[in-house]
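Worked Example 4.2. Read the sequence first, then its structure tokens.
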Amino acid sequence: MWAGADRRDGPVIAWQANLASGAFGASGTVVTMPLDDLPDWLPAWCLDHLGGEPAGVLFQLQQISMVFGLRLAGGRDVVVKARADDGRAVSCVAAQAALAERGFPCARPLTSVAGVGSLAVHAEEFRPGGEVLGGDSPDVAVRYAEVFARLMAELAGVTVAPPLPNPPWVRWDHTGSGVWPAIDFLDSRDQSAVPVYVVDTAERARGRLLAGGLPCVLGHADFEAQNLRWHGQQVWAVHDWDSLAWQPEAALAGAASGSFASAGPPTLAPIESSEAFLVAYQDIRGRLFTAVELEIAWAASVWMAAYNAREQAPHGDTPLPDDAFRTQAAERLRRAHA
């Protein structure tokens, strides 16, 4: 699931050691390819928007988006991203550009979003290097919370059109009739493979989230280990700005508190680590969540985990009885008052 082309963009940084072998990176399938295999539109687009045609391919990541690491004629390295144009890209790239301009550690967009047929395309700087910070202990959770709090504080000063529709894994506010947002590649699969407790958990968490009545803000909705790189104690890069969302701050923090440790297939952090994340986030932001906000945070953490479990199930990855989601769902729902 995570290494195919189903869900998330993931970072544009490929693992350099794996490029020659075409091995799997943390965010998807890394594929080396000759110039002749690039999409027909890409060389001319690079010439028009970046001033040079591709002279070499550093990597390609194929997921929902197509991500190309390219060396242009003249030696400049860039990343070009193309995804189906659903109206979100302009806001996401504008917000990313604003944060990069302020010195936040993320790749700086080099172009605005341009339409190529049904695709939304833009280029950004190549920002290689750094390591994934592994682990899901409370101490690690605090380090991630510090970055997330800084990120959310910076985004609070950015004004863009809401990047809607929200990414599906935080789209509990969809207007469909069922518990899940309409996602063709998931809806077409055998839903009987999804355990009943997953659906029940999602229904209860979604009900709490929809009853929250909290204002929405701009935030990062895929804040996972695989989307960050570190140099020692310092974060070097935050990736996957295509996954910005328009949801309540507490919900976004809650989702991040559950998913921060995911370095490959989605995982759910221990409850004590999610709690440490939320405590640190509030402390750094300088504002305690209300009782309702805390409930919404816990509801978001378990709804996102239920979405992940539903996504994995048709692939034969049905969660085992002792996995983190199944063992934690009841407590997370209790804290959500759901």
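Now turn to a second chain, presented in exactly the same format:
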Amino acid sequence: MLQTDDLESAIHQELARVGTCTLEELNERLPYSSWNQVFSAVDRLNREGTVTLQRPNSSDYILSLAPRRSAQACHVTPV
């Protein structure tokens, strides 16, 4: 069983390697983690904006790494 940070890192590495995959495929590629652990980690990564989830049909989710945002796009100028 992987720790949370290790699991999130493994998800990033796997998505960087394969590009896109389904949630089920990702779960199969991470055999030392339970489905619930993978789902929770993907949920966290999606909420922080580093992983993109798409649901093209009702059967599964497609995962990919989110495009990197530029530092300029994240900059907030005080008024």
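Notes for the reader: The chain has a mean pLDDT of 85. Residues 4-18 form the longest helix (15 residues).
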